[in-house]
Amino acid sequence: MQLLLLLVAFLLAPKVEAGKIIRGHEAKPHSRPFMAFLQIQNPNKTCGGFLEHKDFVLTAVHCKGSSIRVILGTHNIKEQERTQQVIPVRKAIHHSDYNPKYVFNNIMLLQLEKAHLTAHVSPLRLPKRSAQVWPGMVCSVAGWGCLSMNSTSGAWKLHEVELEVQRNKQCISCYKLYNGTTQMCVGNPKKKKSSFKGDSGGPLLCNMAQGIVSFRKTDGEPPRVYTRISSFFHWIERTMRCFSLQGPD
């Protein structure tokens, strides 16, 4: 009997560990009321994002599609929670200098049909212009992405993980065209923790939103590249102001 139990434990261990390696652990339900789950069509995929204003969600450009539906106030995306708000996107506004080949300027605003702010749906403040993030700083990221490198589908419940900011040279050695001015290098390569498939567009929190999940190596190993939000502060403010004044189409 002991031998059988040891064999079962051995077979199950890698599967359990895989979930912890990539995603960390399940987040406390509704502890991140700014999180947005994006359902995208053409191409069909999912992404993350975060509510920055009652009318706008911030995400990554490669999360665009022919139509996008945003779900706010959710923890388990497979359940119809009373806190959920399903909101269509009026307009997707991506950075005009986005470069899909090198993934530069990977930032996009989604103008919504106005969210209703509640205890479960509230915006996340952006960093001040003077806010700094330094190597070794511990930040966190959350999303509904894959729980392991072998997964083909995302998680139903929101998961979160703590990650360390790395020196720029760590990403320069992995990504030849990495730009430390507009990008951030995050995730200790010695610790198998990382955001993964389906987490793109979600916020990196270092006390406040400092990064947006951008891209990774194909094997999912850290470090991963994040868009540095502080470098796009003026673009975000200018774009929201411009499209807010335009009103409905």
From TrEMBL:
Keywords: Disulfide bond, Hydrolase, Protease, Serine protease, Signal, Zymogen. Residues 1-18 form the signal peptide. It comes from the Eukaryota. Pfam families: Trypsin. Residues 21-241 form the Peptidase S1 domain. InterPro entries: Peptidase_S1_PA, Peptidase_S1_PA_chymotrypsin, Peptidase_S1A, Trypsin_dom, TRYPSIN_SER. One of its GO terms (biological process) is proteolysis. GO terms for cellular component: cytoplasm. One of its GO terms (molecular function) is serine-type endopeptidase activity. PANTHER family: DUODENASE-1 (PTHR24271:SF58), KALLIKREIN-RELATED (PTHR24271). This is LOW QUALITY PROTEIN: mast cell protease 1A-like. It comes from Enhydra lutris kenyoni. The lineage of its organism: Eukaryota, Metazoa, Chordata, Craniata, Vertebrata. The gene is LOC111139675.
